[in-house]
Amino acid sequence: MSEVVAKAELAKSVVTALGKLTTAQKNEALLTMADALQQNADAIIAANAKDLERGKENGTPESMLDRLALNAARIEAIAEGLRQIVALPDPVGDTLETLERPNGLIIEKIRVPLGVIGIIYEARPNVTVDAAGLCLKTGNAVVLRGGSAALYTNRQIVEVLHAALAETNMPPEALQLIEDPNRASVDEMLKLNGLLDVIIPRGGSSLIQNVVRNATVPVIETGAGICHTYVDEGADPAMAEAIALNAKAQRPSVCNSMETLLVHRTFAGEHLPALGEAFRDARVELRGCNRTRTLIPWALPVTEENFATEYNDYILNVKVVDDIDEALEHIAKYGTKHSECIVTENEENAERFQDDVDAAAVYHNASTRFTDGFEFGFGAEIGISTQKLHARGPMGLPALTSVKYKIYGNGQIRK
Amino acid sequence: MSEVVAKAELAKSVVTALGKLTTAQKNEALLTMADALQQNADAIIAANAKDLERGKENGTPESMLDRLALNAARIEAIAEGLRQIVALPDPVGDTLETLERPNGLIIEKIRVPLGVIGIIYEARPNVTVDAAGLCLKTGNAVVLRGGSAALYTNRQIVEVLHAALAETNMPPEALQLIEDPNRASVDEMLKLNGLLDVIIPRGGSSLIQNVVRNATVPVIETGAGICHTYVDEGADPAMAEAIALNAKAQRPSVCNSMETLLVHRTFAGEHLPALGEAFRDARVELRGCNRTRTLIPWALPVTEENFATEYNDYILNVKVVDDIDEALEHIAKYGTKHSECIVTENEENAERFQDDVDAAAVYHNASTRFTDGFEFGFGAEIGISTQKLHARGPMGLPALTSVKYKIYGNGQIRK
User: Fold this and answer.
1) Which of A316, B206, B339, B409 is deepest in the core (most CB within 10 A)?
2) Tens-digit pLDDT profile for residues A228-255
3) Are A101 and B16 within 8 A, CB to CB?
4) ipTM of this complex prediction, to 2 decimal places
5) Cβ within 8 Å, pair B411-A236
């Protein structure tokens, strides 16, 4: 039996027990995990050093090494993240509806855990703990398959968490780490119908697309964001500049940052040169359409491929459009249904934009950077769904649950 | 361009317009469709005769020809089904939540259509109309791919419905029928990410498994039901018999009927012979474990394969179990997470069964035959979900919707 099947079966073997844990028991497990991480920080940092060393030998880019690196402060922050999950309400067991039928049947719709959740992610050890915390809080078992570049770190973290869970009512089997560094272990997870109830990919677009294209297990597609800001005719220029700069440059590496700025031609004629200067000051490289380049001569030319690219970097496409229709068409063609924004003082256009744009989050006069479970007030986030089934947009704890109907009868039969 | 892509693109081209139709406009479209079906019953029946003739020539079984056959009464019933959908509340546009954030952002969570729904089904013309009605009522476009044995009928029905829609505010492009009878057209639909938002298979288990195994478009798995009834120690014998007979024999061809009866050994010793007689009177063939066959000598022996089979027929597996644990283990091994029942007077066992069984609907003292959108009071049903994502159990109109966050700001940027 492969490692993947063996560990998924172990995970599945405890789902019934997990579903019966009380909120207090689950919270105690998470708090014990948090304490154990801090108490064992040295061992985790030592394991992490091995991953970092190997990464440097392999010529891993600095930005990726930074995501991989742990120190005492980062481990404390990760532990604090678990404690924050403890504070959140537990959705499991909630009665969502009670139906009483004319024949006397009582039908209760109850929130239950999903079962076994597979998480496929990159070499980011914080995701190991964060995903485990969210899944366990909602009574799910979790099978983690992190990037192999973090294997020493993840193995040490999971060893610490298993030891912590052994002191609690939560069975350690609920948390499984796939250690096989080969791509085949990912492929195997993707087809594990019957053992995994859902797979959530977290990472860049190639990781996500591989999961979406090859999984037979149900998937919640997350993350890829080609987000647009459309500055309408008559938009407030100061507000437009503040929102556009924030959407691009406040943190370009994340999925809710802007990749393309669409500007109404009237607004562009009056304000695009100044807006270009603001982006130059923020060290953002601009790639513009022809009309943009007459107004911002230093902008590079933009290509179709640029419009379809999630840069996650200090690069921005700029396109001047004739009207809101052209903006809507562009977004329909290149958007990834994540987050889109209109800056306008025209209420009619705002309403039309919010109705017509097909995306998880559609903003009027606010930065797309707010698409986030914490900013929405959910207190946690397992990811941002860009699909329409099950959950859309930032996913808090309820997105990690399903429902079950319990039906109470006294001998009813169907006529 | 293939027929599938061309028609999916046509469907997608109208989703924005569909999303804006009022409930009254959608209802008017459905009523016009219903009237047109009845007015054109002769043409539909003539087309249906061609399918039936071809089916007889090909040696199609009588039961399948019966599902395919239409007459005036059946067309009236199908039209009546559309009128019933008109009477249901329209979930689209409902505000599910309004969040006001400390920074002044107002976040509204709104129900929206899913977009374009693909339905893959067998040679049952009633599904053509029923699925179209449910999808259009919820503002979705629909791409239908019915069994090729019903092609003449489906083509005629869709021609009638297109003519009807042309007289209404609903664009006829919202309804597409794939006419290519080759399996390749199904395969193409399964990979149509970006054009189809979801695929719902309706039919037998091989059709559903093909979709689940091969689709890259998100799927809602429906239907397959290996349902169990567990008769506990001390169950009321009359109630147990009534429920078991109803679950098996009231309509064996449907997914919520019982395939395996599990009987506690004490109950079996006292009551299984009489229960066997009741099934014999109902012309149900029994296949039993060894203990069953000592009590019901005429029962055939049961195999592992039998336990894993959805008969949809007058055949029942019977197994005597030592206790509720053995019943739960059997259900965990062979159940399809559809509908399961315990008959017992022991409240503790009932509660444990309802908690521990992982299924969409778990019954205490009532027949599994009630798992149905109409019996649950939803007024409609696009299918019964046996997966845990998005929707579980009978799916009414809300299962055909997604959500969107509309965010209202006045210049907010992220700090």
Assistant:
1) B339
2) 999 999 999 999 999 999 999 999 988 9
3) no
4) 0.93
5) yes
